[in-house]
Amino acid sequence: MDGYRADLGYVLARPYWGQGIMTEAVRAVVDWAMGQPEIHRVWAVCDVDNKASARVLEKAGMEREGILRSWSIHPNVSPLPRDCVCYAKVKRPG
Q1: How far apart are CA 61 and CA 42, in angstroms?
Q2: CATH number (domain holding residue 62)
Q3: Considering its fold, how many domains does the chain have in total?
Q4: Among 33, 45, 27, 46, which residue's Cα sits nearest to residue 5?
Q5: Percent of the chain with pLDDT over 70
Q6: 6 pairs with which residues across the strands?
Q7: I want to staple 70 with a disulfide (CB 3.0 to 4.6 A). Which of 18, 57, 81, 85 is the partner?
Q8: Would the pLDDT of 94 be above 70?
Q9: Nearest alpha-carbon partner for 84 in 71, 73, 94
Q10: CB-based contact 5:56 (threshold 8 Å)
């Protein structure tokens, strides 16, 4: 957590993929974080090719904000920094 922001990251072992476990966990964490008065933004990134992770973030109520170029190294995919998609959920004033 960085003041008013909370960063979200996760990893799930392959045998548990596709069971809805991560969607449920991410949704619970996002809902909890947004319920905290001091947190106004929860955000996460995923590799541009990781469609399943993007779907998890969308199901948790996060919105796609854009692409971060050469943002993160994913050693299991490439030794070079890869583009990532940024997702966030923010509190709206009012």
Answers
A1: 10
A2: 3.40.630.30
A3: 1
A4: 33
A5: 97
A6: 42
A7: 81
A8: no
A9: 71
A10: no
What is the CB neighbour count within 10 angstroms for residue 90? 16
- Please report the pLDDT score of residue 77 as a whole number: 86
For 23-39, the pLDDT digits (tens) are: 999 999 999 999 999 99
Q: At what angle do helices 21-34 and 51-59 cross, to 10 degrees?
A: 40
Closest-CA residue to 14 (of 52, 48, 47, 49): 52
Residue 48 and residue 85 in contact, taking contact as beta carbons nearer than 8 Å:
yes
**Residue carrying the six token digits 């993160």:** 72
Q: Print the SS3 string covering 16-85.
A: HCCCCHHHHHHHHHHHHHHCCCCCCEEEEEEECCCHHHHHHHHHCCCEEEEEEEEEEECCCCCCCEEEEE
Each residue of 32-66: pLDDT tens digit?
A: 999 999 999 999 999 999 999 999 999 999 999 99
Residue whose entry in the numeric block shows the structure tokens 């995919």? 77
Query: What residue numbers bound the domain in which 40 lies?
Result: 5-90
